[in-house]
Amino acid sequence: MSNQDRPLLLEVHNLRTYFFLDEGTVRAVDGADFVVYRGQTLGVVGESGCGKSVTARSILRIVPPPGRIVEGKILYHRVSKNGGSQVAETIDLTALDPRGREIRRIRGAEISMVFQEPMTSLSPVHTIGNQIMEAIMLHQNVTKEEAREKAIEMLDRVGMPQPQRTVDRYPHQLSGGMRQRAMIAMALSCHPALLIADEPTTALDVTTEAQILKLMRELQRDLGMAIMFITHNLGVIAQMTEDVIVMYLGKVVEATDVDTLFYNPKHPYTQALLRSIPRVGRKSRERLHVIPGWVPDPYSVPEGCPFHPRCDQVIRGVCEEVEPPYVEVEPGHQVRCHLYAR
Ligand SMILES: Nc1ncnc2c1ncn2[C@@H]1O[C@H](COP(=O)(O)OP(=O)(O)O)[C@@H](O)[C@H]1O
Ligand SMILES: [Mg+2]
C-alpha cells in the first residue's frame, strides 16, 4: 500500500521538548517529524539518550518538569462512533492542558503506554485486578462486576496463567514477565488506537521476550491498534515493525519502511547502527563494529550536523557548519544528511 492510501493516526511536526535546568537547557527532542499510520507499527531506534522516551512522553503529555514542549504539533486523528456514523476529528495534543479533561480522556484509553519497568505503571499496594478494573471503569460505562470480568478476560488474553486467581494478586507476587503481561493487559484494557511501547522487553530473558512480542503482534491484529515500538534492538525492529524512524540527538535522521532500513540505509548513523549488530556465524576473532565516539552530552550539541564528529563520511567544510535539511530521497524515505541534499 502506498503511503497516500494509509490512514494517518498521528502526525508529529517539528516537535521540540526541552528541559530547563540550572546547568543549561537540554534539547531532548529538537525538531522531530514523523507519522504513525492507523493499525501499523512504527519502530523508533537510536542509542540511549537520543530522545526516544521524551518523544513518547510528549505525545501523552507526561513530560516531567522542568521539561516542556516548546514548539511543534502532535496531531491525533480520532475516529469515534456516534450512533451508526463515524466521527473524524483532529486534535493537536500539544495544545491541551496536560492536566485537563481532554488529555485524560485520551490517555490510557485512546493512547496508552507500557514501560520497560512495570513498576512505573503498576501500584505495589493494589491487586493487579483492581488496577485493571480502575482503568476500565475510568473510561467505560460498566459495573464493577463487568469490569472484573473484563479484567480477567484481558489477563487471559495476555497469557496470564490462572487469570481467575492472578486477578487478586499483588505485583510483587508475580515474576517480571508476568508483571509485564499485567501492565500490557492494563494498557490494552480500553482497546487503545495507539500503544506506545517503550523498551517493553529489554529487562526480560529471551524466551519471555519472544512470548511477549508474539502476544503484542496478535493483540495488534485482533484489536487493530497501532504501536509505536521504541527499542535499541534492531532484531526486534525487524520482527515487529512496518516503518522505522532513527533518532539521533533529538532529531529524526532517517525514516523509511523496515525493509529499506535494512537493505538500503542511507544515513551514516543508520549504517553504523546496522554494522554494530552481531551476526550469527561471525567468527569470534572478528571484531564487532562499534560506532566510534559516543553521544555528546546534551548541553553541548555539535554545530552543523550533530553526528559529524562520529561520521565516517563527513564532508569537510559543510557538515561541521551547516545543519542538514530533511530530504526525501525516494518516496517514503527521508534522510537528514548533506550527502543527499544536493
Ligand atoms: N527528567 C529529565 N530531566 C532532565 N533531562 C532529562 C529528563 N528526562 C530525559 N532527559 C534528557 O533528555 C535526553 C533524552 O532522553 P530520553 O528521551 O530518555 O532518551 P532515550 O529514551 O532515547 O534513551 C537525555 O539527554 C536525557 O538526559
Ligand atoms: Mg528511553
Word description of this protein:
The chain is α/β, with parallel strands linked by helices. The chain has a domain of 76 residues. The protein is built from 10 helices and 12 strands. The strands form 2 sheets. An 8-stranded mixed beta sheet has the order 6-7-8-3-9-10-12-11, with helices on both faces. Helix 3 crosses helix 4, helix 3 packs parallel to helix 6 and helix 4 packs across helix 6. The longest helix is centred in the middle third of the chain and has 18 residues. It is globular and about 70 Å long. The chain starts with 7 loop residues before the first strand and ends in a 6-residue tail after the last strand. The relative contact order is 0.14. The model has no long low-confidence stretch (mean pLDDT 91). The structure holds adenosine-5'-diphosphate and magnesium ion. Magnesium ion (MG) binds next to helix 1.
Quick take:
By secondary structure, the chain is of the alpha/beta class.
Stretches where pLDDT is under 50 for at least 5 consecutive residues are none
Q: What's the multimeric state?
A: single chain
The largest sheet, given as strand count, sense and whether it forms a barrel, is: 8 strands, mixed
Strands in their spatial order, largest beta sheet: 6-7-8-3-9-10-12-11
pLDDT averaged residue by residue: 91
Binned, the helix content reads 25-40%
Bound molecules: adenosine-5'-diphosphate, magnesium ion
Q: Which structural category fits the helices and strands? A: alpha/beta
What is the overall number of helices? 10
Strand content: 25-35%
Radius of gyration over C-alpha positions, nearest whole angstrom? 21 Å
Q: What would you call the shape?
A: globular
How many strand elements? 12
Distance between the termini: 29 Å
In N-to-C order, the SSE pattern is EEEHEEHEHHHHEHEHEEHHEE
